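Internal tracking record. Fields below are filled automatically when a chain is submitted to the structure queue. Please do not edit lines marked as system-generated. If the sequence contains nonstandard residues, flag them in the REMARKS field before resubmitting.
Queue: standard
Priority: normal
Entity type: single polypeptide chain
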Amino acid sequence: MLTIRTEKPEDIPAIHHIHTAAFGRPNEADLVDALRQHNALTISLVAIQDDHLVGHIALSPAVITSSTATIAALGLAPMAVLPAYQHRGIGSQLVEAGLTACHHIPYGIVVVLGHPHYYPRFGFTPAKPLGIAWEHDAPEEAFMVKEIQEGALAQTRGVVK
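SYSTEM-GENERATED OUTPUT FOLLOWS
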């Protein structure tokens, strides 16, 4: 049985290991550590199976800026599952739990740079056709957005930072 809960301080080493193992490098693990150090993990959930931490998802603040406004948003990144536990739906359950948690905080939009065939199942759509771009170069189909609060995307245009 899978349990998803908010991270605890004692989870930190396991979270670092999950990201390093899943991505095959420490970059994403280091990103999570840096976000935590700057109190920028708005949502940080772990997945537990067989009494072991097997997955993690983080959502942190982002802003969408234009010449007329700055809109607060969340960035979903990173999300990882230990390789031995992948392809069991754990990542999907983490994404669903993370998006559900977004409904309880005052953000209306979530952005993600991710696999264009994975995230649309959760309601993410390409951001560029909506007038939203990322400040860095990325494949157009991989940078996506999801509306959490109805109407949040209606007038939102700009660059995500």
